[in-house]
C-alpha cells in the first residue's frame, strides 16, 4: 500500500473549503484503488491537507493523470505549489 500526504494553502474560508470537499466526496469515493482519504487541518491558518491510502502505486499513478486530480488546485483555490510526500506502507497495526 502507498501513503500520499498532500499539504496545501488556500485563501478559502474553512466553511467554503468543507462545502466544496463534501460536494466532491462521491467522486473521490468512486476512485479505483483509493482505500481511504482523510481531510486534515494543519496548525497554520489556511493550511489543510489530504492523506490518501492507495492499494498500489498503479492506482496512485492512474489518479494523478485523472481529470479529478487535475481539478484539485482550482477547486480548492490552492495558493502556491502543494507539498506532496509519497511513502510505502510496510504494515498496518489494525485492519
CATH fold-level label = Alpha-Beta Plaits
Distance between the termini: 13 Å
Name the poorly predicted regions: none
The coarse overall form would be globular
- One letter per element, helices H and strands E, the order comes to EHEEHHE
* Domains (count): 1
Task: Please give the CATH class.
Answer: Alpha Beta
Number of strands: 4
For the residues shown, what is the average pLDDT? 96
The portion of residues assigned to helices is 25-40%
Q: Helix tally?
A: 3
| Sequence of strands across the biggest β-sheet | 2-3-1-4
**What's the main sheet like?**
4 strands, antiparallel
Radius of gyration: 13 Å
Strand content: 25-35%
The assigned CATH architecture is 2-Layer Sandwich
- Return the structural class: alpha+beta
Structure, described:
The chain is built from 3 helices and 4 strands. With 95 residues, the protein is an alpha+beta fold. The protein has one domain: Alpha-Beta Plaits. A 4-stranded antiparallel sheet has the order 2-3-1-4. The model has no long low-confidence stretch (mean pLDDT 96).
List keywords for this structure.
4-stranded antiparallel beta sheet, 32% strand, 95 residues, globular, Alpha-Beta Plaits, 4 strands, 3 helices
Task: Please write out the topology.
Blueprint: E1 2-9, H1 14-29, E2 34-41, E3 47-54, H2 57-64, H3 67-75, E4 83-88
Antiparallel strand pairs: 1-3, 1-4, 2-3
Question: Brief overview, please?
Answer:
By secondary structure, the protein is of the alpha+beta class. It is built from 3 helices and 4 strands; from the N terminus they run βαββααβ. Strands 2-3-1-4 form a 4-stranded antiparallel sheet.
Amino acid at each position: 500500500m502507498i501513503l500520499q500526504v498532500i499539504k496545501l494553502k488556500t485563501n478559502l474560508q474553512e466553511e467554503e473549503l468543507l462545502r466544496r470537499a463534501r460536494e466532491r466526496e462521491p467522486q473521490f469515493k468512486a476512485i479505483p484503488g483509493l482505500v481511504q482519504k482523510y481531510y486534515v487541518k494543519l496548525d497554520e491558518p489556511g493550511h489543510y491537507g489530504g492523506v490518501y491510502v492507495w492499494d498500489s502505486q498503479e492506482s496512485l499513478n492512474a489518479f494523478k493523470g485523472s481529470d479529478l486530480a487535475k481539478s484539485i488546485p482550482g477547486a480548492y483555490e490552492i495558493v502556491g505549489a502543494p507539498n506532496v510526500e509519497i511513502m510505502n506502507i510496510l504494515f498496518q497495526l489494525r485492519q
